[in-house]
Predict the structure.
Amino acid sequence: MDITAILYPVFVLCGMGLIFGAGLGYAAIRFKVESSPYLEPVMDALPKANCGGCGYAGCEDFANAVISGEAAPDGCPVGGAECAEQIGGILGVSVERRERMSAFVRCGGCDAKSVFRYIYYGMDNCIAAMQLAGGGSKACAYGCLGGRSCKEACKFGAIDIVNGIARINPDKCTACGVCELRCPKNLIILVPAKASHIVACSSRGRGRAVRADCEAGCTGCGLCAKACPNGAINIENNLAVIDDAACDGCGACAAKCPSKIILLINS
């Protein structure tokens, strides 16, 4: 066997490898994008949760956006005010302290208080459950299905499923908003963490129809609005809505509510 016939392809491949390697090395130097000197300190200030709550793919994308001026220093909901102030100090810009927020599930219709049209057997997922008749097994079309979609989306362990509905621990909630986006019934909202009372219902139905589907449904009766000494409650689309700025937490509305669905936040 001619040894040349064996070595020639080897030398050719090695030569091609050297040429391509040199070309890639030159391209890496020629087209190198210099990173900002601010990137590392800004990254150190961020919580590195990579949750997407800021609207960017991850913490590094957010950091670059802040450095370029595309995003505000206080755009990280997980890091909160302390993180924003650190980033502001690094970049030499002033940052206003934002009010701390927390997620809240606007539903009080646990299994014991809800009427079910059928028993659901299937994936423990709200989107899957909604594909069946009526948008889920609960008679109330607005009710939480307790399918763990929000719980699985939360990276901070702030959500538990209790008696068939999602409940959020405000001490663990970072207000990243991922659960809000994941809920197919739009039951989760971000509210001020210091808010006093909130209506744990999202139903837009009328009186008797609401009560027929759920014992914890708001009927839009208006008794809470009449009881409020500060005019902090309005009835909108058959649902009581509380103005946090006007509410002083007196509790008169909660005492008057016949459905007992005006709660201390996240209670």
In short: The longest helix spans residues 3-30. The two ends are 85 Å apart (CA to CA). The chain is about 35% helix and 10% strand.
